[in-house]
Write a structure and sequence with these properties.
mainly alpha
């Protein structure tokens, strides 16, 4: 559930930088502040299943390809296209 946070005594130059960044990215001031906080704060602990979910979702979208050891060696020798 979202929570409200009020910031007080923000230095004027910091406020202006945040405001300019929000305008440049076409975000609200609130959204820009959230993105900045998400960028600098460490992520929450994730379960192994949560960590694997994006990889599994990507895997489902890819066409099934099976590479055998000789194929892998061939790619390694000639480099990726």
């Amino acid at each position: 559930m979202p929570t409200t946070l009020t910031l007080k005594n923000i230095p004027a130059d910091l406020y202006e930088r945040l405001k300019l960044a929000a305008e440049a990215r076409r975000r609200s001031l609130n959204r820009e502040a959230i993105v900045c906080l998400e960028t600098v704060l460490p992520p929450r602990k994730m379960t192994p299943g949560e960590r694997l979910m994006p990889a599994r979702q990507l895997q489902e979208t890819l066409q099934p390809n099976v590479f055998l050891a000789p194929d892998i060696e061939k790619f390694r020798r000639r480099g990726l296209p």
